[in-house]
Amino acid sequence: MANKGIFINKIQEKTRINGIFLVENKKILETKTGKHYLNLTLFDSTGSLNAKVWDRADEFDKIFEKDDYIFVDAAAEKYESSIQLNIKNIEKIPDDQINLDDFMPVTPFDRKELKKQLFDFIDKVKNNSFFRGLLEAIFHDEKMLKNYCDCPASTKGHHHCYIGGLLEHSMSICRLIDSLRDVYRHLDSDLLFTGAILHDIGKIRSYNFSKASFSTTDEGRLLGHIPIGTQVVQEYAKKLDNFDEKSFFNLQHLILSHHGTKEMNAVVLPMMEEAFLLHLMDYLDSTIAYLYKLKGGLKGNERMWTDYQKGYERYFFLNPVINFPTTDFQDNNGNDGQG
Which CATH number fits domain 8-101: 2.40.50.140, 2.30.110.10, 3.40.50.300, 3.65.10.10? Predict the structure, then answer.
């Protein structure tokens, strides 16, 4: 295996950089004088950064493509508020020389513990035999279980954009719902837990995540993860001997409406209490995860402003990350843990 060299989160201004990175994006552009240069986005398991090749751009352009691994000799420079690499030399590295663990971003939580939580929450579905049978059919499928545990929750850096992100996000929503059961005792907890576990299951077929540069599949781009999710659920549900049409439609409604509004790509608006609660918990967890990611890019010890976040139409005033997540969660006895 080739030596990875420096990781992106360790790169500092005014240092010489030698390391292997994945090419997430590549464009050949022209300066105002007509000279070609390469504009790259480089990636590893700790993050991404911009890089430029000002000299020998046409020569280097021929030796690698997007999604290739390259060894770079570069200078780290400050451009506006970010670090940028000025690359002097490039060597393409064969895929079989790469340790994927160096390039796959992974959930900071213990995936074995998250997987255990998944089955613990399935065990909480006690009153609706159709929902229980559906969940057992899906997650006793070893390939489906592996993909569910590996899949990121997004591909473009919004929230939980790493291996295990879908599992982490779904279990966070389950814990939020579990914490509210005593407040809203009249709601259908079997429907809520099943909806929380399955609301984003379409992402398994919507995303390519076998390589470090996550991308959207043709199916995902053409249909979207929400309609695909209802298809996945239907494929398993129709095989059950105890198929329950009413429960099936209620669950499909939760999946189709969990984005909350048409502007946010919900297929239908939430029209059940459980659907509305699932939408709110999904929005809460995805937003807090996104803000946590933003906090990781802040320096210092005091609250400060982020860059303008177009998706939220605002700046955020946040504390930098001081304590990173642990692998502890609230256990079945109600003892407090972080998650």
Answer: 2.40.50.140
